[in-house]
Design brief:
heterotrimer, A mainly alpha (about 425), B alpha/beta (about 260), C mainly alpha (about 425), A: about 425 residues, ABC transporter involved in vitamin B12 uptake, BtuC, Arc Repressor Mutant, subunit A, 19 helices, C: about 425 residues, mainly alpha, 18 helices
Chain lengths: ~425, ~260, ~425
Amino acid sequence: MPVWDSTFQLVLLGALLIGCTSGVLGTFAVLRKRSLLGDALAHAALPGVALAFMLTQSKALPVLLTGASLSGVIGVLLIQVIVTYTRIKADAALGIVLSVFFGGGIVLLTHIQQSAVGNQSGLDKFLFGQAASIVASDLYAMSVMVVVVLVLVGLFFKEFSALIFDPGFLASIGFAPRLVDLLLMSLIVLTVMVGLQAVGVILVAAMLITPAVSARFWTNDLLRMVLISAFIGGLSGAAGAWISALAPRIPTGPVMVLVATGVFVVSAFVAPSRGLIARWRRLRGNHWRENTQHFLRACVELQEQADTDLSVIALTDLAQVMHEPLYRVRRLAKHLAKNGKIESTDEGAKLTTKGYDDAVFVLKSHRLWEYYLVYRSILEEDHVDRSADEVEHILTPQIIERLEAILVEENIDVENVTSIHATDSGFRKAGQDA
Amino acid sequence: MAHAIDDATIPIHIHDMTVAYHKKPVLWDVDLAVPEGKLVGIVGPNGAGKSTMIKAIMDLVPKASGWVRIYGQPYARMRQTIGYVPQRESVDWDFPIRALDVVLMGRYGHVGWLRRPGKIDREIAESALEKVGMADYRDRQINQLSGGQQQRVFLARALAQDARVYLMDEPFAGVDAATERAIIEILMELRSRDKTMLVVHHDLQTVNQYFDWLVLINMRVVAAGDTATVFTEENLNKTYGGRLTLLSDAAQAVADHQRGVS
Amino acid sequence: MLDGSFWIILTGAFAGGACGLLGVFLVLRKMSLLGDALSHAVLPGIAIAFLVSGSRDILPMFLGAAVFGVMTTLLVETFHRRWHVQEDASIGIAFTSLFALGVVLISAYAGQVDLDQECVLYGEIAYTPWDRLLIGEQDWGPRPVWILGTVFVLDLLFVLLFYKELKITSFDPDIAVAVGIPATLMHYMLMSSVSLTTVAAFESVGAILVVAMLIVPGATAYLWSDRLPVILIMSTVFGIVSAIAGYYLAGLWNSSIAGAMVLVVGGIFGVSLIVAPQYGLLGRVIRQGRLGLRVAQDHILLRLVRESETTEDPSVHISDLMEGSVGARFRSRVAMWCLGREGFVTWDAGHLALSDNGLGKATDLLRSHRLWETYFSQLGLPEDHLHHPADALEHFTDEELLQGLHAELPNAEIDPQGKRIPKNK
């Protein structure tokens, strides 16, 4: 437990502010495909920090950050110049500016360390970040910048979202997309600079990228995404500062980034709807539904063949028709019995009225689709079955209606569709050759 | 379309081939047997799967089902018999090489690992450049060539591959009239030597004039056969007319379903 | 024993040369950022290898770094393809988190790891002479020189042996596959070489030099030449030269050697960016200036020849020939001077008149201008829309285009404004 004193509160507050702001602006940066530009910007800020110190001999945060912003912006402009006026592509231009500016920064930094009288300039905290170095005056400077950034984001929220979604549209309704883009870029610069001291030039871009990408898993709505991203950013910032206070040897930046990455991984798995687990479950549900539908369809098809109504169907027959092992057919039967679609007896399965209706719907979808494909001369008759097999499970009542409408036009009796094939009941899996 | 499997006389035989991008079917259940020595046009609207079909023949995109045989053999074994002209936009024309180097690439398959192209390869490449009327540009950096000239270089590369079957993806797109004439002359000459060519084409006005065999596609093969019989108003309506929204809706639904999106 | 600085320079030169050579292919394949990511992401592998083996043995380091190198590519792929994260953001997340992990490991186990945060960034190249390779009792010289020398030779062999395959897969992977050269295999072979080089260079020169040397020399050479072999040689030479110059610069400024090497290679890039003949900024500006000057000359000639059509005295005062901004007036002035020097105009007390020579050239221009106007008017453009397109085209109308125009307009004698079109001589 770190000592809960005013210094620690200060540091925690600073880290929280940094995380939140990065989260907010990161959302726009990521959606505008500027994630890595933030990285170049941060790396390019290093020589500015060193030069500002060499020129002024001052370690005041506003002085250093002014230098940082200037050299960062020059770096980003240089990338633009290289991409616009030479044949070097964007990725290489970014890499060049990032590494050369950073190399220059390292030269200046080591030069200062070797020659400065007091030796300890303390500038190396800008490499990996040290939240503990935040003092009250730093916090004031940061707060002012954060407030400016957040107010501007609030004011221009509508314009920023239009810029991301459709810059052409933004221009057509009378805003200059380049100006809006410039404003957004400036805000990103400010945000990166605020984070520089605590997170460090090497990793500050991660605080822009990771919370925003994590937030994307949770929502499709931009405003919610901004809020969630701010929350994740703040959480990572505060947690990073906390952990690094416990172990002062470990720089803050990497810890914050690791916390944010942890949140990212968790979000990727557990987020509802867009998360991986939700997706897997849906996928499994789909497979399960497909299998039960095949079961029901096989029941009616066997009944049609046997020419009797609602008789008991042997599971072994079903297994044969469905090309499935018996144990899986048994499992399906058990599940369907529980849902009241069939009655399970010793000899086999018997469709209930409810099950019969479902089965007929599936059968009808299957056959209508077959007719559509063949009628539209989309497929040869012998290929039709497999496509219909895939599609029958996903045909919504609306699509069925449209299908019926098309087929009625062609004088096909949609109420009494029979199989397009004489005998084959056709359960084949995709990829299986005839 | 009942052909014996492994029929070694059919240059390109496609059976029940479905191709999907990210699980979304873009070509459904294609059956096709292209006869030898024909100049074959592949025609259809944007997004109909024309390029996809060519890429699927060459295993450049995975097939969801079905198979392709080249003279009765799988593609991997018949690679040397196929020449390919990709779309011009598919490469970076700022790449630092000269026209002759690009053509020479057509010989790499014959040269083999760890060896340099020899004198004979060089001669073949140079005569291919000459054939397309680009001999004077052999040392020109490729970004200094006009669109038509770039397309000719690509064609020369395919010629240097010395193939029996040529697959060409929109060789007439964005070229000048002179280049178009030059290209079609070369194709006619190839046909007279019994080569088979599959050419993705988008200009309906020249179909009759250029191709003697035709494949109309729109997510599936609508019609295939001699141009005279296939190139009819009815078939064109089937190819270009709407009414397929249902099929693309279904394709999207299949993709979503299989990826667990909805 | 040789001078210590010799070994340091040799180490740097091997590192710069190896990275410069492979970097060309990264730049051409638009994979520069993967190089960047890779050189950051191998850090945890190296740190873990240190912790586990407790030594600086090269083998565990390679293993650790290789595992994390492969992991970076896999993570980027997984995030992008399976988790549907944008590609640039995927790269961003993958390498920042691995690098962060590496830094945390190093700082947490600072006592046990013979590495510190600064060393990660700019290496320990200064200690090269004291890091000896001992086999038994025998001292074989500095270890980093051996490692990087070997890697340099391996990279060189790789590029020489697989030159043809690297070239075709970088230019057009589809055609490579079509002629039977596996593009994926070449991709992984290249990435393995990059990883190997990265790991070898990492310890002695640090992450930052690796990133810079992988990208900057290749991109610089790309500004100078259109020939791949030339680019490869230049890039390697740039890498080696900046290592040598960087060492002396660092001595001069008393600063990090690796940083100074990066600065030098950056300087070479900066100079090339400006002066490279065909693709540099200066060349671009000069070409545009020349074009502007020619257009200004053409305008003056046209003005003079029109004057001679309508008035008896075909000379014009120079102040009437200059208009527009300061820059434009200056350009007109230079244009006049050029015309005078080439003998197209004669000067007389501040007045300009066409010489016989100039009259011929000016008449050609006028014909071209008026033919274009006629052409556009036949295309159906309204009369007040004719001047501008004709104005733009008249400067670029060569003999071939002119003949085409004549063929389109066989009997044109009068332009749409009713002015006479001069005959061809």
